[in-house]
Amino acid sequence: MSKDTQILENITQSEYKYGFETKIEADEAPKGLSEDIIRFISEKKKEPQWMLDWRLKAYRHWLTLKEPRWPNVTYPEINYQDVIYYSAPKQKIKPNSLDEIDPELRATFEKLGISLDEQKRLTGVAVDAVIDSVSIATTFKKKLGELGIIFCSMSEAVENHPELVKKYIGSVVPASDNYFAALNSAVFSDGSFCYIPKGVRCPMELSTYFRINAANTGQFERTLIVADEGSYVSYLEGCTAPMRDENQLHAAVVEIIAHEKAEVKYSTVQNWYPGSKEGKGGIYNFVTKRGICLGDYSKISWTQVETGSAITWKYPSVILKGDYSVGEFYSVAVTNNYQQADTGTKMIHIGKNTKSRIVSKGISAGKSQNSYRGLVRVLRRAENARNFSQCDSLLMGDRCGAHTFPYIEVDNPTAQVEHEATTSKIGEDQIFYCNQRGIDTETAVALIVNGYAKEVLNQLPMEFAVEAQKLLAISLEGSVG
Amino acid sequence: MLSIKNLQANIGDKQILKGLNLEVKAGEVHAIMGPNGSGKSTLASVLAGREDYEVTGGEVLFYGKDLLELSPEERAREGIFLAFQYPIEIPGVSTTNFLKTAVNEVRKARGQEPLDAVQFLTRMKEKMKLVEINQALLSRSLNEGFSGGEKKRNEIFQMAMLEPKLAILDETDSGLDIDALRIVAEGVNKLRTKDNATVVVTHYQRLLDYIIPDFVHVLYQGRIVKSGPKELALELEEKGYDWIKDEVSA
Fold this sequence. Notes:
- Chain A: It holds the Pfam family SufBD_N.
- Chain A: Residues 137-202 form the SUF system FeS cluster assembly SufBD N-terminal domain.
- Chain A: InterPro entries: Fe-S_cluster_assembly_SufBD, SUF_FeS_clus_asmbl_SufB, SUF_FeS_clus_asmbl_SufBD_core, SUF_FeS_clus_asmbl_SufBD_sf, SufBD_N.
- Chain A: It comes from Rhodocytophaga aerolata.
- The structure holds 2 protein chains of 2 kinds.
- Chain A has helices at residues 3-11, 35-44, 49-63, 103-111, 141-146, 154-160, 162-168, 179-187, 428-436, 441-452, 454-457, 462-475, and strands at residues 26-28, 87-89, 125-131, 134-138, 150-153, 192-196, 205-211, 222-227, 232-240, 247-250, 253-258, 263-270, 282-293, 299-306, 311-314, 317-320, 326-335, 340-349, 355-364, 369-378, 386-395, 401-410, 416-425.
- By secondary structure, chain A is α/β, with parallel strands linked by helices.
- In chain A, helix 9 packs across helix 10.
- Chain A starts with a helix and ends in a 6-residue tail after the last helix.
- Chain B is of the alpha/beta class.
- Chain B has one domain (2-249): P-loop containing nucleotide triphosphate hydrolases (Rossmann fold, 3-Layer(aba) Sandwich), CATH 3.40.50.
- Helix content of chain B is 39%, strand content 28%.
- Chain B contains 9 helices and 12 strands.
- Classes of the chains: A alpha/beta, B alpha/beta.
- The A-B interface holds A 3, 427, 429-430, 432-441, 443, 447-448, 450-455 and B 48-51, 71-73, 75-77, 81-82, 84, 87-93, 97-99, 101-103, 105-106, 109, 141, 158, 162.
C-alpha cells in the first residue's frame, strides 16, 4: 500500500458528530404507503379537501412511475412499504410560544448548535425547526410579521394562507415531475413556507433546520419560497440525522418563485448521516430543488455544501423565464468512505439576455464516487443567453472516483456557453510545503481543501461559512492523498 | 546547533549522500557549493524531512535532538526552515492565511498562545518592511502566478515571520535577476542574529557576494570534500570544479 493511501486511511477516521438520538415519544403512522396513509396524514394535519385531493392525485401518478436508474449511484432496491411516512414528536400541548416547547426537543436543537431562544441569537437569523415530520418552532415570527413577511411551517401555511399555497405549490416542481417529487407530493408532512411581499428586503436570514429522529422514518418535507416583486431574501437550510445501521429515505422538494426584480439566495449545508466507514446505514437523499425566475431582472442563487448522506441525488435548478434574469449554482460536494453523490444543476434559459453561472467543486476521498451532472439549455427565443460553467474535481487517494456529465443544448445562435473543467489531486508537494512550515498534515489538508472550495464558501452567509469550513475539515479528516 | 555525522541517503536504489559531515554553530553562515548532481538539494531535503529520501546511515543532531526521528512539521516547530528552490502553489489560500496558520501551529506546539489578528498583522507589517514585500502579493493565492523573484521573496518573508533557528536556503538564487537577488540577500542578512544560523545551498558564487559566508564547503559525490573560508568560493568561481574533482580522484 502506498504511503498516500495509508495516510488517507488514518485520517478518514473521524466520527459523525450529530449521530445522537433523542428519546421522545412520537406519534406515528403505521408502516407503508397507501391512499389510507395519505388520508391519515392529511387528517392529522387537518387539511382542507383540495390539499388531500392534490396528494391523492400525486400518489396515483407515482404508482405509474419507475424509480430513476440513470444516476451514477448504486443501492439495493428500496421497499417503499417498509417506511413510516408520518412521525411527529408528541408534544403535550401545541406550543403557543417558544417557552412552551418540550424541553427535550429544545435540548436536541441546542445540542445541534441551534438556539430557538430569540434573545440568545447573536445574529438575526429566524429559524424554523423541523423534526421528523413536523415543524416544532419558528422564531422571530412577530418581528417578520410587522414587515408582512410570512415565515411559518408548511402546515400552518396551508391552514392560514391557503390562497398563496394553492397558487404556488407545484407550480415549479409539479407533482408529476419525477418519481421522488411525486412521492413527496403525496406524503409531504411539513417544511417551511416563506412569502416576502412586494419591495421588502428581509432584514434577517431565514433558516430551516431539518432533523430526522425517529427510526424507519422517511422525511418528506416541502419548502416553498415566494419572493414578490422587488423583494429580497436569503434562506438557509441545515440538516442532520442520528447514526443508524439501516438506510433512511429523505425525499424533499424545494420550490422558489422570484417575481420581477426579486432576488432569492438559497444556501444549504447538507450534513445528513453519511453512513459508517464501512458503508453501513446513512441517508438516501433524493431531493428536487428548483426555482423559477418568473419576472424580468429576477435572480435565484443556489449555494450548497454537501457533506452528508450515503447517496445524494440532487440538482438545484433555475428556470430563467424573465428577461435579464440570473441563475447561479455554487456547489461543494464532498464524498468520503462509501458515499455516492450524483449532483449538479440545470439552467434553463427561456427569457432574453438571461445569464447563468455554475461553479461546482467536487472532492472525493476514500472509496467514494462523486459525479457532477449538469444541463445548460438555451431555448429558441432566449436571445443573448450567457452561461459560464466551472466544474472542478479534487481527488484524495487512489480508490475514489470523480465523474463529470455536462449536457449543453443550445437552440439560439446568439448564446454564449462556456464550460471549464479540471481534475486535480492534493499533491504530496503541497502537503510537504505546509509540513515544513510547521503545519501538520490534517490541518494542511483542511487548508488546501478550503482554498479549493473558497469561491463557493465565499457565497455563504458569514455564520454558515465558518460552520461549512469546519464541516469540510471534519468530513475529510484522515483522507490525505 | 547542527551536527551531521556520516550521513547517508538514497533516493530509490541510488545512493546520493555517502557519508556527509557538517557542524553548524549559532551565528554562522555556511555555504554548500558543488557541481550539479553532487547532492546539495538532497541534503536540504533530508534535513527538512522530505520522505522521498531514505536515510540509510549516520546521524543528525539539532541541539542534541535526533532530527531524523522527527516528522517534517516537528522539525519546523523545532526551528528548521527550508526556503524551497521551487516554492509550491496553493490555490485559494493567501500567503497571509497560510502564514497565520503556520505561525499559530508552531506557537501551539511550543505551548504559546496563538497570535490574534491584530498581533499577527502588526508582526506582518514589521517583517514586510524588512524584506520589501507588498501587501497585494500577500493577499493573493500562495505562489500562484508569482514571478520567480516574487516566489523567492515570499520564501524569505515566510522565514522572517517564522523566525527559525536554522534556515536552509536551497538554490535561492536560481531564476533571480540581479536586483531580485540583492533584495532577497539583504532580507536574509537583516534576519541574521547571533542566535540563528544559515546554510546557503548554491551552485554559483554570485549569491555569496551578498550573503557573506563564514565557511564554504564543496559537496562532491555525496561528501564534503573541501572546506574553507569565503575565499574558497571565489576560487571555485574562477577555476570551476574540475580541480576539486581531480583532487578527489587523485
